[in-house]
Amino acid sequence: MAQPAQGSRPGQLLFDALAKKNDQLFWGGVAMAIVGGLALLFPFGATLAIAIMAGWLLILAGAVTIADAFTVEGTGAFFGQLLIGLLKLALGIYLLRHPDVSMVLLTLLLAAVFVIDGASQLALAFELRPLDGWGWMLLSGIVAISVGILLAAELQEMSLVTLGILLGVSFLITGLSRVVISRRLSALAARR
Length: 192
What we know:
By secondary structure, this protein is mainly α. It has helices spanning about 10-20, 20-40, 45-70, 75-95, 105-130, 135-155, 160-190.
């Protein structure tokens, strides 16, 4: 099968990178959805418990995001995804080492991570735009930014339940969007 000329269609380099590592994209999405499901299952607890839970969830999400970054290696999206993964990982490690961190600081840090993550996902979505299912990645970015804004806006009123639910929803949507993009790539490859 002849390779299309580079630049023959918008985002071709990204499509090719994702197609080569489609299984990794799929299983990374499944893992992220599971992390989101876990966050939705455990929204209760004291500030200490949520900080520890958020720390582990962020470490898991960071590891998955770093692994997913390598599915787009060689494209512009690579460094953004890698940076977001490292940021999630570092924040998770910090929260585990300092579980007594205040709820306000935890919420503010998470808000920043989600806004940056959402911006990265929006950029990736627009690069994927010709691909059927790109809207899922767009939705994932919008949800992540919305979660970040909601977290920042509700600093004083944020309950532990709300924080856990927002984390879970964002991680779940991110995972599902990766699974959908992976399946769309598989369908596209089958038609060739």
